[in-house]
Design brief:
single chain; mainly alpha; 8% strand
Amino acid sequence: MELTDFNSIMSIFAAIVTIAGGLYGFYKWSFNKGRRSAVDSAEKVVFEQLYSPLRSLLVNTRFSTFSSISYPYLSQRVANAWKEVITRKHLKGKIRCALAAMRNKGESMTVECDTGFPQVAITELVQKVPHLVDSELMDKLHEVEVKRSCPWEFDEQDLLQAQYRINCHIVQRYEGLAKKFT
């Protein structure tokens, strides 16, 4: 059997491809394992230093929500759609807004906080660990701070709804992380 034999060359090539594939597979496996480990440890820090303390601040906070439908009857929705048709200038806008008004049931939500909302404590905690705060929580906190600082622009119901959204976000993130780490 000669070294230049086609079968010998193909056997050597197959061995090289197999070894390279095995090395690449081992590299990808170890890389993904390391990344998962890093993400898990970062999420554990966020859970322990941010969301657990935030959740403990909300233990005594209780919200009551009431929702209502403004246009429960078809005749009310048709009247609302007719107003849209009259006020729009172009046919395409009239059709689009009328269809949207027909689907719109005008659901509204009223929120009441039976206890005090710990806004100051939440803001202080977030300012201590800003590198752990996700953008959604930061946006919700910013919204509440704007509504608190401008009471002449926003009524109390707007502020309560924003605080309720923060509460829901904190509880949801806490529960999601708690399933992983407890």
